[in-house]
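Metallophosphoesterase
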Amino acid sequence: MDPKELGFTPQRPVGWLAPLLLLSTGVRTLLAILFGAYLDKRELQNSLDGSWFDQSVTEDGEMWLDYVADLGDGFHATYSVAWLLAQDRLTVDGAELPRGRVLLMGGDQVYPLASGDGYESRMKGPYRAALPEPPAGRLRPTLFALPGNHDWYDGLTAFLRLFARRKDGHIGGWRTQQRRSYFAVKLPGDWWLFAMDEQFGAYIDDPQLLYFEEAAKNVGPQDRIILMTPSPKWVKAAEDPETYDAIDYLIRMILAPTGANVRVLVSGDLHHYARYSGEDRELITCGGGGAYLLATHQLPEQITVPPEETLTRNKSRSRTYGLRSCFPDKAASRRMSWGVFHRVPTRNPGFVTMLGLIQMLTMLAMAGAASQGGNIQRLFTIPLSLMLVLIMAGTVMFAKPPGASLAHHTRHWLFGLTHGFAQVGLAVLGAWLWLNLPVHDWAWPGPLVVAAVVYWPVAGFLSTQVCALYLLIAGMFDVNVNELFAGQGIEDAKSFLRLHIAADGTLTIHPIGIDKISRKWSADPDGSQHSSWLKPDEPLVARRIEPPIVVR
């Protein structure tokens, strides 16, 4: 896979526990929270074309659509999904499923941070390699993309340049038509697609509301609606009830007055597949386009949407939805949790190095203070105090991310402090062993050399195992569940949706799962112009996650 021949450089999966990435992501998240309103370009989009899109005319009155989200991570996982999406048709459990005429990207098209180079190497390049050109004599499929939180980290600049501000734009064989970060599409069979942009969960801006109001004038009581959102707030509302308010406002104030029924809500952001079903609506999370797998075993069996605890006085009627299916299933998700002990150190060597350095400096500070003898107050020297503050502050911050609900902060504090004391205890044990070894009395710089060559890597490995044990236990109480799986970087168990609108207006959703991605590829120089540049060396098998979901 020569980058000069491909036109991009295939990327390794993001190491989410890399020290610099943790620092950079934390700073950018904080800046987004503090100054997100100043970076918000949605108001400026009012000057762009505000037309909705008509994809309702087809030869036979039918249409196939594809949905994928959370895709711009490591090459092997991203390209495995892109390759399957690009094939003219898939044989899934004996059924022939044609490629979608429309490809919907549901958010986080690039990781970890949005940039032109990031999109090129992690998303645009792999998808262009999967479908370089549309088949001769056939209509070029259309691509619509909705931004997620990672697309927003640069204020949406790179996203708009790639997806919304290019004349005759295309990504390989897919053409891009949208001119804003949100869109409305008329589909066959009295179906509509509305895709809303929340920008870090903020309010819906006035230009976006006006856009949807204009589109909704063409929606009637006989229509049914698929609503795309950047994040499955119906799940997250269990801990933060107000997070669903923006979605409920759009449904209640813009879509409900048309008399149409919102039959499907679909989102990515959580990197797994999960479907909640109610009396009149399907709530689907499908974020398996390429990013690391996220646990499913902590998902509640039932949710209430909108949550009854919300402070919105005019909310829609609350309904109960039950968990019908998830991928991986909860038993498999629990088993995968135990992989934290070997995957975290092997996938995140920089994290091991950082913890080893902290442990070594703390041990040396403890040993130096203890060897002075005398009053116990000497144990609280400036270097030792600084290291103890660093450990405790770091573990508490690690356990209490900005998104944690205020009502559950106590739990995060307790787990963070417990983790901190465990790391300090490891340092105490290390200092005791160090003081009982003859190397402690060697002439300078002998002790420092031994500490750096021997103690550092050993302490780094042990400290990582302590952190892994913490993540495993904390994850059982819904603390640091994301970090438990992000640190493992599991690339398998990917998913996407293939949807079919029949001539009679029946919508059938096929949830497609990939148990194992391909990690070996071969060039196909003799293929046609529209065939994928790289093919898997071994069969890349797609299967149904659950039986087709029929929505009428």
